Amino acid sequence: MSRRRRRRGWGAALLTLVATLTLEGTLQAQTVSDGRVWWNVTAQERSGTTSPWRWYFELQGRTRDGASDMDQLLVRPAIGRDVSARSSLWVGYGYTPSFPESGPTVGENRLWQQYLWTRPAFGGAFQWRSRLEQRWIDGNERTAWRVRQFVRLTRGLTGGSGGVALVAWDELFIHLNDTVRTSSGFDQNRVFVGLGVGAGPRARFEVGYLNQMIDGARGPDRRNHVLLGFLNAAF
């Protein structure tokens, strides 16, 4: 190989390295990260009763900058009906005010419909949930439509009703239309890995890490690292 070709080879490699580092730095600069804490308390009617009808109520709080500032509050009641021993249909309402760092509270009201299916899988329990939302957000000019696809796997690690279980799930959010506050297409994705343990005869507590990636259609992308705790009680 001649010196000229060798210089060209090293030059191309150097340019490629510079371009890669520049692109990586640009992508990192376009993503804002934050540590957060979310808590969730859920009460619901247990399955397996004589009536096919079910009720559900959820209260969730979300903070930003660790646990220093309130970011969102979620109140979500719903009613459902069993379709089979493994599936059910639900309809619910959600009130979700957001508390931005500056400016007034942004209110949001939602109606949502979902299909829920569960079955044994991989030595544990598998859950599939498809949800459609209609969102009315303060300052928006029209209804925002969004679909959410959720999959979850729970696998016991120890025996007994109060045994420890491994919990993993993923939820994908897609906007279906353009509005002043939303852009059609990918909205966000949430991935959770944690542990669950019995907290009583009909209660479970789960805690773990949630990675939330949010598309920044009107600004930088966001990646939130969340400590998430669930308390679920069945009656």
Topology of this protein?
Elements: H1 3-29, E1 31-44, E2 53-64, E3 69-82, E4 87-95, E5 108-121, E6 124-137, E7 144-156, E8 164-175, E9 185-200, E10 203-214, E11 221-234
Parallel strand pairs: 1-11
Antiparallel strand pairs: 1-2, 2-3, 3-4, 4-5, 5-6, 6-7, 7-8, 8-9, 9-10, 10-11
- Residue fraction in strands: over 45%
Roughly what percent helix?
10-25%
- Which structural class is indicated by helix and strand composition? mainly beta
Work out the oligomeric state of the chains in this entry: single chain
Report the CATH C-level class. Answer: Mainly Beta
Which regions are unreliable across 5 or more consecutive residues at pLDDT < 50? none
Average residue-wise pLDDT: 90
Specify the number of helices: 1
Beta strand count: 11
CATH topology: Porin
Biggest sheet overview: 11 strands, mixed, barrel
Rg over CA atoms, rounded to whole Å, is 22 Å
How does the overall form come out from the CA principal axes?
globular
